[in-house]
């Protein structure tokens, strides 16, 4: 769901940043009026909370685990506007620090998850919960559905953003420059993953936290429940709502997976889903016209559509029966392939991670890690990664000695360049430049290889691989048995995606490993980021560590007391309750920090020290960075 | 007659169901070093928050140099800045107090909010870091500080404003002996300046060094008051308010101040 750099074109990224802008502006305005002096601590601390909750491993049916974004909970506890800001901040820190989601794609990610997600979650929750009392089961289900719907609508937006890339951006040979799959593939592939795993994780965390809050901290649910009757102890459900057991959920999931593409088959010619042949089929033409408010459809199929429909049928053998070559079947197959790939990848990665971790553990019988253990390990890893970055930033290499503002703007220009160039050799040259920068900055190449290059390859490679066969174009090679064609355009599309993602990820890691967070904040400030946002970002990062530590302690103490295995339903409840405890603590810390700020003269308007001016030498270095970036873009246009 | 820094009259304050201050009355004179003693939950922290103008009494009143200290009064910008400039509170929990991304920013926060000129702020931050012996921590983030360092930074972030009245909530709690000694040393040095210091603590060892007067709290009321020596001799009071345990306390090598024991075991 976190879109990395290199998947979306610069113009798409820019438009989504522009689209997010007004929402951020309105959200900040409204919050300032509503919360006054409490806004800054509340948003910062809550953003830190959502960051930490995104690290929780949620046990899902079938022994898998998933992560949630937490927009359902954010929208319910904070209201939609504050949720927009808090999640945007959390996403920013994830992108800058942990390489989760790209820097150029930040606008897109915030738009999909923070803005669309929060608004959809809020609307769903209000619609379903209506005036039910604070303690009612209806609110729990409403919260779960809010999370489920929100993540799915957000995924749909992401899928559309991916899907329009090959239509709009390709090089001279017709090879897609960015995400290579058209809407017909990107939508089913994204949606099947989210309608099942990711959606379920979101459902579990949202419903679980609300159920926990009903019992322990019902006041937190007040804000988005106007008109709900007052809470009486008697109204509280005696036992927490039991989520359906694993078996039932699995059956439901399987049904969903099978029925979704079948639905597409059954509907046939739903609006906007006509196949190229439909346009010339005299029987279908009146239907399209009727559905399109009597506007006569064009005679021939639109050029783009014809090209599109041949994409999924391309790799299928020529002698296959006609229905297999039909558009609907291609739809179904690509959907299934998408889900299959996601499942296979997650199993493979799980296996790899488990094997790596087992090596450290005592040899002998391989034990499956409990989700508690996994979460605790993940939390420790996040803390260590951040601390490691801070250590690296102090080691006095080439990049480390540069002024943070020069680095922020310079490396930013490089990332934009890496996303903008249209030739493969230009991308390769940029990657080489990154390696040189890493060497002179004493950043170990082995670290980059293990943490960035392999990780990006594992993720983007899997996504790019099918494009080698699915992209129409000049055939280079035919696989012996399957008869799938490897096309030149497909190879180029896959290389673009992988190289771009690798280069952009390497650049952002170079920035993080060479710059302290405080310096980065000062640089943001110098480049006129609003004071409020700089202050919130600073506090979020600070409290992120406090909560990571708290969560880690919580899970580790849980681990020491746990005997035997818990039922899946209990495990889910345990995870949600831990998140709930953390949420309670979050709100408490937020109000305490608020008083601590007041005690030192804070009245709602934050003030920061202005930055010293950059020196001539700094400007020169910045010019060198930007100049190089421009040259690369011009040569690689 | 010396001026009264704080005059607390019949103050009542409760959180949800629990009464934290029960019709409490006491006075803090200007330049006096006062210790608030009491077990956990006896109302010390609540009183400090009230004195710092963060919460306000639900009943009764507090005046600050003769002026009433109320929520409405603090809305007035001129009074707000004057009050914040003169009164500094060091919180018990340094995690809460240190909310800025670096030590430098932490120290600069107070002066910035009080609208000092930027150049003066830069200078004062450097001076204070030097004076508190934490100049080497300047660019560190709070999550990379030890417990003792956090306390010192928290103290420095308040001292940079050079407040006349310093409110300290358990300044030496949960610290190793070395860090504790540094804090106590600082509080002793306050005795020579004209600062008014109100310290909440349950550490009896350092009482004589840090305070001229003590108030013993019990359930949100003053259960006893006097000089440190008088209080340390009142064993019945200390035992009743759970500040010492009858069977276990140390008199220190070299005698210290002996006090009578209420009961003795056979054979002693």
Set down the secondary structure blueprint.
The complex is a heterodimer of chains A (637) and B (268).
Chain A: H1 10-35, H2 39-53, E1 58-59, E2 65-66, H3 71-78, H4 80-98, H5 106-129, H6 137-168, H7 183-216, H8 246-267, H9 276-280, H10 285-291, H11 303-313, H12 327-360, H13 371-392, H14 398-401, H15 404-420, H16 424-440, H17 445-470, E3 475-478, E4 485-487, H18 488-514, H19 517-526, H20 531-561, H21 568-599, H22 616-635
Helix pairs in contact in A: 1-4, 1-5, 2-4, 2-20, 2-21, 3-4, 3-5, 3-6, 4-5, 5-6, 6-7, 7-8, 7-12, 7-21, 8-12, 11-12, 13-20, 15-18, 15-19, 15-22, 16-18, 17-18, 19-20, 20-21
Chain B: E1 4-15, E2 18-29, E3 33-37, H1 44-51, E4 59-64, E5 67-68, H2 71-75, H3 77-86, E6 87-90, H4 94-97, H5 103-113, H6 118-131, H7 147-159, E7 165-169, H8 177-192, E8 196-201, H9 207-210, E9 213-218, E10 221-226, H10 228-233, H11 235-240
Parallel strand pairs in B: 3-8, 3-9, 6-7, 7-8
Antiparallel strand pairs in B: 1-2, 1-4, 4-5, 9-10
Helix pairs in contact in B: 5-6, 5-7
Please give the oligomerization state of what you see. Answer: heterodimer
Uncertain segments of chain A are: 232-247, 256-325, 357-366
Strand fraction of chain A: under 5%
Mean pLDDT of chain B: 83
- Share of β-strand residues of chain B: 15-25%
Q: What is the N-to-C succession of helices and strands of chain A?
A: HHEEHHHHHHHHHHHHHHHEEHHHHH
Largest interface, with counts of residues having CB < 8 Å to the other chain, equals: A-B, 32 and 40 residues
């Amino acid at each position: 769901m976190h879109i990395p750099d290199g998947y979306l074109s610069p113009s798409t990224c820019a438009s989504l940043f522009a689209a997010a802008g007004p929402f951020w502006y309105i959200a900040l305005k409204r919050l300032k009026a509503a919360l006054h002096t409490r806004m800054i601590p509340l948003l910062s601390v809550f953003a830190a909370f959502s960051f930490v909750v995104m690290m929780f491993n949620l046990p899902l049916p079938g022994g898998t685990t998933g992560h949630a974004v937490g927009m359902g909970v954010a929208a319910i506890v904070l209201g939609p506007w504050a949720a927009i800001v808090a999640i945007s901040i959390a996403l920013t820190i994830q992108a800058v620090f942990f390489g989760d989601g790209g820097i150029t794609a930040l606008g897109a990610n915030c738009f999909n998850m923070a803005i669309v997600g929060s608004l959809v979650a809020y609307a769903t929750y209000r619609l379903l919960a209506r005036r039910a009392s604070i303690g009612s089961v209806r609110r729990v289900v409403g919260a779960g559905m809010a999370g489920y719907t929100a993540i799915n609508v957000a995924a749909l937006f992401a899928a559309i953003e991916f899907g329009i890339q090959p239509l709009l951006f390709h090089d001279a040979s017709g090879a897609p420059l960015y995400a290579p799959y058209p809407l017909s593939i990107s939508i089913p592939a994204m949606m099947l993953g989210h309608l099942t795993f990711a959606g379920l994780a979101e459902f579990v965390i949202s419903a679980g936290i609300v159920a926990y809050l009903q019992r322990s901290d019902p006041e937190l649910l007040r804000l988005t429940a106007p008109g709900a009757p007052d809470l009486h102890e008697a109204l509280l459900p005696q036992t927490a709502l039991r989520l359906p057991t694993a078996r039932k959920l699995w059956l439901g999931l399987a049904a969903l997976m099978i029925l979704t593409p079948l639905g597409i088959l059954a509907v046939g010619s739903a609006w906007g889903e006509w196949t190229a042949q439909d346009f010339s089929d005299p029987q279908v033409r009146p239907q399209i016209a009727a559905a399109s408010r009597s506007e006569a459809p064009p005679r021939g199929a639109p050029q783009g559509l014809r090209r599109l429909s041949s994409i999924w049928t391309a790799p299928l053998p020529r002698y296959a029966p006609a229905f297999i070559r039909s558009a609907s079947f291609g739809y179904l197959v690509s959907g299934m392939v998408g889900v299959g790939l996601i499942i296979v990848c997650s199993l493979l990665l799980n296996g790899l991670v488990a094997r790596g971790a087992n090596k450290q553990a005592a040899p002998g019988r391989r034990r499956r890690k409990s989700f508690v253990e996994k979460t605790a390990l993940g939390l420790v890893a996040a803390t260590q990664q951040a601390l490691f970055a801070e250590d690296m930033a102090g080691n006095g290499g080439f990049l480390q000695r540069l002024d943070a503002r020069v680095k922020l703007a310079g490396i930013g220009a490089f990332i934009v360049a890496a996303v903008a160039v249209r030739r493969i050799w230009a991308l390769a040259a940029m990657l080489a430049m990154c390696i040189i920068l890493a060497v002179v900055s004493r950043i170990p190449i082995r670290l980059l290889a293990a943490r960035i290059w392999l990780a990006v390859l594992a993720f983007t490679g899997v996504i790019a691989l099918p494009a080698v066969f699915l992209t129409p174009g000049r055939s280079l090679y035919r696989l012996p048995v399957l008869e799938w064609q490897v096309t030149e355009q497909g190879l180029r599309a896959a290389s673009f995606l992988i190289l771009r993602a690798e280069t952009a990820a390497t650049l952002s890691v170079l920035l993080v490993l060479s710059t302290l967070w405080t310096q980065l904040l000062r640089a943001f400030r110098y480049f006129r980021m609003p004071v409020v946002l700089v202050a919130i970002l600073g506090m979020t990062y600070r409290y992120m560590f406090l909560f990571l530590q708290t969560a880690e302690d919580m899970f580790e103490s849980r681990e020491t007391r746990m005997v035997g295995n818990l039922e899946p339903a209990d495990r889910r409840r345990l995870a949600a309750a831990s998140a709930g405890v953390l949420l309670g603590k979050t709100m408490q810390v937020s109000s305490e920090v608020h008083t601590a700020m007041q005690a030192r003269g804070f009245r709602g308007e934050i003030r920061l020290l202005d930055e010293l001016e950059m020196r001539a030498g700094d400007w020169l270095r910045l010019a060198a960075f930007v100049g190089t970036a421009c040259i690369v873009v011009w040569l690689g246009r | 007659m010396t001026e009264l820094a704080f005059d607390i009259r019949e103050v009542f304050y409760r959180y949800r169901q629990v009464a934290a201050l029960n019709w409490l009355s006491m006075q803090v004179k200007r330049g006096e070093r006062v210790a608030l003693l009491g077990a956990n939950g006896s109302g010390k922290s609540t009183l400090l928050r009230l004195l710092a103008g963060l919460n306000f009494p639900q009943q009764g009143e507090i005046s600050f140099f003769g002026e009433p200290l109320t929520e409405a009064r603090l809305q007035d910008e001129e009074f707000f800045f004057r009050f914040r400039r003169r009164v500094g509170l060091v919180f018990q929990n340094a995690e809460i107090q240190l909310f800025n991304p670096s030590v430098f920013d932490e120290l600069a926060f107070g002066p910035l909010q009080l609208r000092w000129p930027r150049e003066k702020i830069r200078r004062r931050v450097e001076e204070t870091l030097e004076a508190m012996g934490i100049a080497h921590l300047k660019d560190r983030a709070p999550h990379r500080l030890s417990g003792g360092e956090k306390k010192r930074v928290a103290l420095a972030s308040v001292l940079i404003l050079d407040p006349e009245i310093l409110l300290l909530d358990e300044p030496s709690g949960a610290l190793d002996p070395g860090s504790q000694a540094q804090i106590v040393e600082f509080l002793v040095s306050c005795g020579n300046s004209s600062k008014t210091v109100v310290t909440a603590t349950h550490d009896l060892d350092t009482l004589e060094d840090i305070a001229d007067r003590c108030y013993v709290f019990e359930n949100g009321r003053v259960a006893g008051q006097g000089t440190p020596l008088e209080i340390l001799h009142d064993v019945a009071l200390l035992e009743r308010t759970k500040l010492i345990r009858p069977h276990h306390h140390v008199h220190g090598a070299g005698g210290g101040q002996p006090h009578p024991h209420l009961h003795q075991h056979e054979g002693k």
